[in-house]
Each structure stands twice: as C-alpha cells, then as structure tokens.
UniProtKB/TrEMBL annotation:
Record-linked Pfam families: DUF6802 (PF20615)
Protein name: DUF6802 domain-containing protein
InterPro entries: DUF6802 (IPR046543)
UniProt region (Disordered), positions on chain: 1-23
Length: 103
C-alpha cells in the first residue's frame, strides 16, 4: 500500500552550478542517500540542478558538503572541496575539471 511518505521528494540544496565558485558559501545536505566511504553513515546526495547533476558529500558529518562534483549536460565537469584557512576564512577550491567524452 502506498503511503504519503512514498511520494516525498528529498530536500535538495539551493545551488546554481552555473554561478558556483570559491565564495559560494556552505552547501547544507539534509537528505543524504548514499554511503560512499562505507562507514555505515549516509553522507552523499545526488540531485539535478538546472542543466547539471550534482554529487555532494558530507564526509565529516557536520551537515554541510565537503566535496561537490557538478556534471553539466554538455559533459563539462568541476569538482570542488570546502576549505577553511588558518585564519578561519572558508571557501571552495576547485580540485578537478574538464570535459567528459569527446567534447
């Protein structure tokens, strides 16, 4: 029997892959669905954001993404890591990027 919970859509972070950059700020993950590091804790969420698929992971369990990978429809991708400098300033640093396939 289907229940109303069967139709709930998980919350997805408010994120625009086309304008994302070093100063984008924290990305809260409220509904992780995958355990990518195998520790038994759900830490990763995938979702559509405009013309991109986003894979966001919170590996330190603080509720905010530590790693993001965005893959656009045209094959362009970028991976980012959330960092805190020695003076406490937070920012995203791009760790990888390019084009998948023959593009």
């Amino acid at each position: 029997m289907a229940t109303t919970e069967s139709f709930l859509v998980p919350d997805v972070p408010d994120l625009d892959p086309n304008t994302f950059g070093p100063d984008s700020g924290a990305v809260a993950l409220t509904d992780p669905t995958h355990d990518i590091d195998g520790d038994g804790v759900l830490d990763t969420q995938t979702f559509d954001a405009g013309d991109a698929v986003v894979i966001a992971s919170d590996l330190d369990s603080d509720g905010d993404a530590d790693h993001l990978t965005m893959i656009h429809e045209d094959g362009a991708y970028a991976s980012w890591e959330f960092r805190r400098d020695g003076d406490g300033v937070v920012h995203w640093q791009q760790t990888d990027g390019g084009t998948l396939g023959n593009g």
